[in-house]
Structures are given as structure tokens and as C-alpha cells.
Amino acid sequence: MFTHYIDLAWRSFKRTPLVSILMVLAIAVGIGITMTSLSVYHMMSMDPIPSKSSKLFHVQLGTMDDGEEWWTEDSLPQQITYKDAMALYHANTPARKVASMRSGFTVHMNNDQIKPFLESTRVTGRDFFAMFELDFLYGATWTTQQEQSAAPVIVISEQLNDKLFGGENSIGKEIYLDDSSFQIVGVTKKWNIHTKYYDVTNGAFNDPENVFMPITQIAAMELPSWGNTNGWKFEEVNTYQQRLTSEVFWLQFWVELDSPQQETQYRDYLTNYLTEQGKLGRYTREEAFFGLRNVNEWLTYNKVVSEENKILVGLSFMFLIVCLANILGLLLGKFLRRAPEVGVRRALGASKGDIFKQHLVEVSMLGLMGGLLGIGIAQLGLWGVRQTHDYYSALATMDISMLFIAPFIAISACVLAGLYPAWLVCRTTPALYLKTQ
Amino acid sequence: MLSMKNITKVYQTEKVQTHALRDFNLEVNEGEFIAVTGPSGSGKTTFLNIAGMLENFTSGDFMLDDVNVGKLSDNQRADLRNQKIGFIFQGFNLIPDLDLYENVEVPLRYRGIKSAERKRRIEDCLEKVGLGSRAKHLPQQLSGGQQQRVAIARALAGDPRFLLADEPTGNLDSLMARQVMELLEEINKEGATIIMVTHDPELARRAPRNIQVVDGQLADFTLYQSRESGVLVPEHANEPADKSAKAEV
Amino acid sequence: MLEIKPIFNSLRRSKAGALMLLIQIAITTAIVSNAAFIIKDKVEYLQQETGYPEDEIFSFSVLTYGKDRDLNQMFEEDETMLRNIPGVIDASLFSTVPVSGSGSASSFQLDADPTDSKSTRAAYTMTDEHGLNALGVKVGEGRAFTAQDVVVTQESSELPTVVLATRSFITEMFPEGDGLGNIIYFGINPIKIVGVIEKMKGPWLKDSAVENLIIFPKMMANTYQRIVVRTRAQDRASVLGQIEDLMLAKYDKRVVVGLQGMDDAKDEQNAGDILMMRMLIVLIVVLVLVTALGIFGLTVFNINKRTKQIGTRRALGARKSAIVSYFLVENSLICVAGLVIGAAGAVALGQGLFEYYSLPALDYMYIVMTAVFVLFFSLLSVLMPANKAANISPSVATRSI
């Protein structure tokens, strides 16, 4: 019976080609536009690391005087000072934690073959890779000993490894960063994230860094920050040493807390730490105040998905409603015009349910065709979005879930729109339409 | 009052020419009640359409109330139709989304009659056909006979010079058909000229004058009262008529 | 002649189709009003004057990793070399490049003691006496820098004693209008404002204090150094193409990156706004088209459904124009009802956008203009089918099915 209904539906389409095409187009355009904005929103707001996003926490410390404001919603600065970062890093809780910062170097091999180029560098703790699930192709992260002694070692990405060494195992080889030579101890696999959630301060959708360096190099090499540096009060910061001991914010800090108990313990730890620091006269505060946000909370807090994206998604859905109203009107016309035929079918033994099902199948087919065409239109729309800026290249795409949602929304929408006309047409008294007018 | 001379109507399709009316001649005087009969496809409906200016004719002269219809523009014909003619259709043709009051009102609005005057006329006409109390009902809520009566009220509301009725009882049972005929006769007595197309011979017999349309041309029968039976019979009933003039009833 | 009352009654009795059109018109009005307003807001923002001849200016960054040159001296020579390239009007080092999206900012104090002192936030940059010319701006009041003003050093603590400020900064800091010649404090360092520039935008176009800019006459060449070059507009592309080779030829232990025209930098910063604007334009166009097609389709359907009725009306004396006006009036009734609801929706939507998202409050003129536009478009969509309907012959009334 179902295939028969499909056959009927197809014939019905062919009988009124113009109206059918109009309806398919209406749904397709509605779906196309909705999926374009929805896909971008989806990619931007997606949990970047679903397996442990609730266990990774970003730390913010309230090390300013009471009454000082910041441009975040709770007036907590997004980064912390160097001395706080080091203190937290050297604490014995929790097991996994990193401070990090973005810097950069000129990469060269000290020969004429490769023209020197710039690479931004993530200067961080050795647990970074395990914490953020960045796997290794060759080698591993640097040892505790190497980190403590600020040894000139680095980890590079697969892309950089391909560029410099043709993809071979380059463990033990040396490259020059600025004028210092560093030894490669690890090569990471390509990192398939499209949101730089571990550092949203300089472009949440830029590519991750290709070079990783031990955090101790900051002090050892007096590295410049390629990120943001912000201060809340006047300090003489003219030498690098002054920078390291100042109240200026320029590092990020992440911890891994595996259970709610660990989280409570860490919160207590931070409270104690901040109270102590306040007593040392760094700042005057009534109460210790800090921020401990997991990955998704951190992304929301930083408004990574901009307001405008949300507005566009909302407007797109409203547009979809217009398309639906459009289709409902056309369906009403189309179905009611066929009432005489329905009257004949009923006279020949069709029940109301049969008629209802027949029309719902027709409407679903409409939705399916519209949904598939809509995917095509959405791809066009996403291509247009990608043209506006580089960082959309990973964001303006449809992943598998979006590809399935499109026809699902289309069919559901059409069924919704078709319910009333289908109900109307199966309700009519057959006798009424069997008479001539 | 209505005069058709040598009226011809030709339908031109791609390769075929159909003569629906051929050198059709007819004179109608005021106050007449004419039944138009003929086999299906004979051209009776075409004749009615042309008489009511619903269609153009290919050649000939058509004078309606001293107006040369052939020389009128589309708008002028519409106006003339509105003012002089009342239509009664086989399928009633009431507008389903309007109630009875609004249905009768339709031609009056086109004439530009003011609201108060319209109300008077509509209420009068609905009363006359016996449906004054149901003015707010919708056509679907009425029986066939009642719907036809509303259609008659609509036709009358404009005070037409004559009524054109196309199989007015075709969709009605015999009781209702009789009622509608009585209504038409009453209206005719009050002075309206009526041309009625029908294939019901009983109905045709009740009209004082019968004409027959066969193959696009007119065969006119004038009737007179038969002394014996009181039933109206065609003048030359006992003579074999033209083969082509044999009425099919 | 308008048959408003019977048309209205007839609509009431067969609501569904009309209701669908009404919904479409209402939502379209609500969305288009707000979208058009947002677009205008965006266009205004994107067209803002930065104060610079953007098509003449480009900037780039140099990362020097070689340690065997004195940076200040090297860049002095670089500046001279750049200024001598044919087509170049001027070139200069900058610590912060306007419109680039990155730079430095600070609060500047009225008093030496920061507690309880009035302070004003401004972006700041450090350049030499060629800096203004490299950006194509002139001092409006007071004087520009001379070579003597420029402090050449490698110490961050060494600062010049004079600065230039923008009009916006001075007005904010000295509302009584006596800013020129006054002293302000950068930390504990006093600096005197010797010149005022009428309009210059800082590095971040969305910053609340975007027009506040302070310029220090100081040369402290950095391993990560930015340079601004100004050329004649027609020469910019060719000069830009030569920069990397020329710079590396002079000293090759460095990397040249980020060669970009100021207008392109502006577009990059505004990429999100440009995208939003484009999507809104697409949305408006598609919305109006879909609604117009909906009206068209529904009217065609109605006409088909009512063929007999139309023939009957003609038979009863309706002129062709009466048939056309019937459909126009019917559509207008639905349209006006939809517009009224849509206008209310537009106001509500505008309120919501204003409160929950930091958009400016909707100017109600946009609702009015949208309503007129939608009405016009809807009547246009009805016109063609209505004209076809008028051609239905009155003889349709006498046909049996």
C-alpha cells in the first residue's frame, strides 16, 4: 500500500507540475537558508571535545581590587598573571594542569633551501597534549626534567613535519627558532578542531599552533607574547623581569578535574590561595572570587557564538515558517480541488484513514524532494559564507548530523503543513462531490 | 423587443469550423413567454448565450430593446446585461461563500444602486420567492429547489426587462420543478418577458410559445389552446413535420 | 466600486487560505522591517570614515631573528630605503598600526597621582616625524612633530615629553576645550599635547573609544616591528610586491609578513558584519519572492476554483474591471490585516533584538516603508492572474460541468 501511495503521489505531482515545483522550491529555499545559518551556528557552538569537555576547566582569578571592572560579564579577567600561573602550576593539585601562552618565532633550518617563515608557538606545560587529546604521530611530550631545566626541546605538528622533513620521523632532528636551535621530541597528529577553545583570546576560529614549547622557556628566553596583555593598575613594566612579577594578565590556565569531588576540592584550594594572596597586599578584596568554567561554559562565557549568529538562526526559522504557510496554502488548494476524486475513492471503499495516509505520503515526498534540493541550496549558501573570510573554511560546512537534519526538518515541516489540508480532505462527505455541480 | 436577424455563430478550432447557429432569425415581443427546445447540441445554449450577450456572434444583426448589440463594447454589453436581463441557470450558480442576501445583492452592486435601495429590493425579492426568513443562510444549507428560487430572486432584483432561463428545472424533482414553473408564470403575468431553454416537454407545453432549435436554425411553433383537452399542442401536431424538425423529448 | 463587505464576509467563511497568506505577509513584514534596519545600520558602520586615505596605505610586519644588527639603526636605513622607492610618498615605523586589529591602549591621567584622577582611555602608537605623512593625516591645531621631538632608544622607560592627540580624546579629557598645550600623564610620566588631529581611528574599529588616539614621537625598533608605507593609490600594488625582496636584500635574517592594504585590513576586521549584511539581504529578497509567489499561486488557485463564479458575475453584469478589482480588493484586505499584525510583530521583534542583543532600537519608519513595499508587491502579484480572470467569458456560467 505504501508504494502505491508513492505512485499516487508522483502522479499527483505530475498533474499540476507548476504548483508542485513551486512547493518544492518553497521548501527547498526555506531549508537551504535555515541550514546555512544553522550549520554555521552548529559548528561554532559544537562541543569541541565531547569526551571530556565537562572535565577540563579554565581558571580565572579575581586578583584586582574590589570595584575594578572588566569587560567580561562578571568582571573577571580572562587571563592570569605570570606569578599566579606558576604558583598554580607548581601546586600539587590537581594531577593535570597547564599554563599556556601564544608566542611566535621565525622557523628556519639555517640553510638556503627553506625560506624562513613565521610560526606561532604554544608555550605550555607537558600535560597539554594529554589534556586536550592531541595524539602523537612520533615521539611524545617532553620530560619533566626537560621542562624543569628549560631544555631547548619542542613538539611540532604533522603539517610542519611534512613541510620541513617530508613527513619522516624527525625525532631528534634540530630546527632553528629565531637564532636558537631546538630539538624535536615529538610530532603530533593533525589536530581536527575548528574552534581554538583552549585559547579564545586571539581568534577562536584560527588554526591551532604548529609548534609547542615548554612553559619554562618564557622566563628563560624572555619570550614576547603574541596574545593579549592587559593590566588593571599602573605599574612600571619596563624590563622583562618586571613583567614576570607584575599584576599584568597574559597567561591562560587549564586544569583537568575528573570528578565533582575533585572540583569541590579545587575550588577550596583556589579560595584559600586567593585569600592568602590578598593578605600579601596584592589587592584589596572582601571575598575571594574566581572563575572555574568547563569547556562549554567557557565558550559560552566568551560569546564565541556571536549574537549575530543567533539572530540569523532565529530569522531563518521564521523564514521557514513563511515557506510553510506558503505550502499550506498551496496544499489546501491542491487537495481540496481533488475532493471529487477523493469522494470517488471513499465511495469505492477507502476509509478516512486511507485518504489521510495517502495525502501524508504525498506531503512527505514533497518534503523529501524539497529537503534534498535544500541541501544543495545550503551548500551554495555555505560556499558563499566561506568566501567572506578564511576562518569560515572549517566552520561553514555541513557535517553528517546537519546532512540528516535537513531532510528531517523538511519532511516534518511538510507533514505539519499538510496535516490540516489532509484532514480537511478526508473529512468531506463523499456524496457531496459525487453529484455534478 | 428582441430581434435577431441572420445571426450566425461559428466556432473555429484548429482545423474544424463548427456552425453553432446558422442564419438564425427570431422576433420576441414584450411579455412573451417562450420555451426553447431542441436536441442536445442543437445550439439552444449558444442561442441563449448570444441572447444574453454572454458571447459574441460571428455575423448578423441583434437588436435588444432598440439597442444594436453588435456595436457595443464589452463594458457596454456588461452594463446592458446588468440592467435589462435576469439570468436563471441550470446549476443555480449561487456563490457559495456568500449568504442569500449577498448573493441576490451581486448584480445590484454592479449597477451602483445605493445600500438602502438594495436592501429594499433584496428583501422584496426574497419574500416573493418565499425565502425572506433565510436571508443569512448559505446556499449549501438549502435544497436544490430553494437554491433555484434564490437564483430567481437574484434575477428579479434588478427589475429586468426579460429573464433568460437555462434549464431552470433541470436539477430539480418534479414537485420543485412545478413550483419553479408556477413562479415563472406568475412573473410573466406581471409583465416580464421570459425565454426559457428546456428539454422537458411538460414544461415546454406550459409556455404559450415554443420554438425549436435544430442544427443551429430555428423552427418556430406557435401554440394555441386545444379546445378538447385544454392541453396546449403544436399547431401542426398531426402532420408529419420535417424530419429534421422532429423534437426529441 | 469596492465590494468590501461581501468580500470580507466571504473571506471569513473560507478562512484557511487567507489565513496562510496573512501569516506570510505578517512575518515578512516583521522580518523585513528589522532586517532592513539592521542592514542600514551595518552599511553606515562599514562606510565610516577612518580618517585615512585607505587605498594609498599598506602595512607589514618584520620579524628579525638575526642578532648581529642594531635594530634602531637597521630600521632607520630601512625607512630611508622605503622612502626612496618610486611611487612611495612616505614610510614610517609604528608600534601600533591603525585599523589593523592589534595594538596597545592605556588610560591617560589628568593628575600625576592616579587615585581619584580623571582618566581617559586611548589607543596609542609610537612613530617618528614621518608618521603622520605616512598615514596621510595632518595636524588640525597646534604643531606636528619635528625630528628633535623623536626619542630614539631601546629602553621602554624612556619617553618623549610631547605627544599628539585626536580631537575625540581631547574633548573627552578636557571638555571645557582647553586641551591643547596641556599636560597629561602616562603612568607617572608627564606628556604635553602639542597638536590635535581632527579624526583618526585606532586599531580596533569596534572599540568604544575608537577615535581616541595618542601618538608618541619615539623610535624603539622591536624584533617584531610594524611599518606603514603610503604610496599613490595606483602605485600601491606594484610597490607592495617589491617590499619583501627589498627588505630581505638589505638583511636576510628576518621575515616579512602581513603585507596588507589598509582597506583590506578594514574589510577583514569587518568580515562578520559584511557577512551578516549579505545574509540579511539574501533573506529579504528571498522572503519577498516567496511571499509574492505565494500570493500569485493562491490567487491562481482561487481563480481556477471560482471560474464558474467569475463567469456568473460577468453574466450578471460585472465589467472586466470589476472582476480585477474584486481580486485586488480581496488581496488588499488580507494584506492590510497581515501588515497590521506584521507591524506589531516588527515592533516586538525590534524590542527583543534591542534588549537581548545589543542592536539599536528600530526606527519605525522602516516598518512603514516595508508595509508600503509589501502592499505594492502583493498587489503586483495579484494583478496578472486577476487580469487573466477578467477574460473568463460570461458564457462559462451556462456551461454545465
What do these coordinates show?
Chain A is of the alpha+beta class and 437 residues long. Chain A folds into two domains: 2-47 and 306-434, no CATH class; 63-288, no CATH class. Helix content of chain A is 51%, strand content 14%. Chain A has a six-stranded mixed barrel with strand order 2-3-8-5-7-6. The longest helix of chain A is centred in the last third of the chain and has 37 residues, at 352-388. The two termini of chain A are 32 Å apart. The model of chain A has no long low-confidence stretch (mean pLDDT 89). Chain B has 249 residues and is an alpha/beta fold. In chain B, the strands form two sheets. In chain B, strands 6-7-8-3-9-10-11 form a seven-stranded mixed beta sheet, sandwiched between helices. The longest helix of chain B is centred in the C-terminal third of the chain and has 16 residues, at 174-189. Chain C contains eleven helices and twelve strands. Chain C has helices at residues 4-13, 15-46, 71-83, 131-135, 167-173, 236-250, 262-269, 271-305, 307-315, 320-356, 365-390; strands at residues 57-64, 88-94, 104-109, 119-127, 141-142, 151-152, 162-166, 183-186, 189-197, 213-219, 224-231, 254-261. In chain C, strands 3, 4, 5, 6, 7, 8, 9 and 10 form an eight-stranded mixed beta sheet that branches. In chain C, strands 2-11-1-12 form a four-stranded antiparallel beta sheet. Chain C has two domains: 4-47 and 271-398, no CATH class; 66-252, no CATH class. In chain C, β8 (183-186) and β9 form a beta hairpin. Chain C is α+β, with helices and mostly antiparallel strands. Chains B and C meet through α1, α2 and α3 of B and α1, α9 and α10 of C.
